[in-house]
Amino acid sequence: MHARDDGEDPAPSTLQRTPSGYDRVFATTRWVAVAILPFLAIAAFLLFAFPTRTGELFAWPISPPLSAYLLASAYVGGIWFFLRVATARRWHHVKHGFPAVVVFAGALLLATLTHLDRFSSNLSFWTWIVLYATTPFVVAGLAVAQRREDPGTADAPDCRIPGPIRGALVAIGASAFAFGAAVFVAPGAATEFWAWQLTPLTAQVTGAVLSLTGVVNVALAWDTRWSAFRVLFQAQCLSLAAIVVSLIARRDDLLWERALTPLFVSLVGVAFVLYVAFTVWCERRTRMAG
C-alpha cells in the first residue's frame, strides 16, 4: 500500500474506520505539538536570557549557567521537532522522535520526583511538574495510536542511508545513551568528573539530555529512509549548534583541570560538524534522486 498525501486529517470520529497505513498525522497529534511549543519556547528564552535568575523565574535555581544553557539547547531542538510535528504531512517524517521525547520527559519526571526539595515554590515549578507528569504518557499514547500509520514507503524523491553510515550513527547513539544513562543513574559520581560543576539534580538533567541522540539514532538500525530522519537530524543540528555557542559563551564555567572537559568540548564540536555534513549529504542525494 502506498502512502496517501492529501494533507488532510480525518475527523476524529472516522479514525477507527479509516484503513491504517495512510501515513497520516492525526489532528490530535498536531494539537498536542502546538500545545507543547509555547512552553518549550518560554523555557528556552528564560534559560538563555536569565541563567542567573533561574531560582526566581524558572523551576529551580540552576548553577552554573552552563547547565541552564545545556537544558535550553535541548529545548531548541524540541521546538523545531514539535513545530514540524504540527505541520508534518506524513507520520513517518516525525515518528522516530516520539520515543526520544518519552525517554527524555520521563527521565526529567524521575529527576524531579527524586529532588523535589531543590525546586522553587513558584508558578514555573507547578507548570514544570504538570508538564512532565503528563507529557511522557501523552506522547507515548499518541505514538501507540499512530503506530500503524507508517506504510514503510519512502518519499519521492528520497534516499536510502547506507548500512555502514547507519551502523556508525547507531554506535554513536548507543554510546551517548549509555553514558547519559550512567550519569543519570550515578549523579553523585558524575559531579566529580564532569566538565563543569554539577549538582545531583543537574547531573540527572544532563544525563537526560545526552540520552536524546541515542534514542533517535537506534531507529537507524531498521529504517533506511532519510525522509524518516530529516526532521530529527535538523533538530539535533540545532541543539548541537546551541551547545557549541553555549560552551563558547560560558567558557568560564568549564573546569579545564578535569580530563573530561577537553574531550567533551571536542566531541561536541566534532558531532556538530559530522551531523551537519551528514544532513547536507543526504539532502544532496535526495535532490539528485529527484
TrEMBL record:
Transmembrane spans: 31-50, 66-85, 97-113, 125-145, 165-189, 201-222, 229-249, 261-282
Keyword Membrane carried by entry: yes
Coiled-coil annotated spans: none
Top-rank taxon, per record: Bacteria
Keywords: Membrane, Transmembrane, Transmembrane helix
This protein's record includes keyword Transmembrane: yes
Protein name: Uncharacterized protein
Organism: Microbacterium psychrotolerans
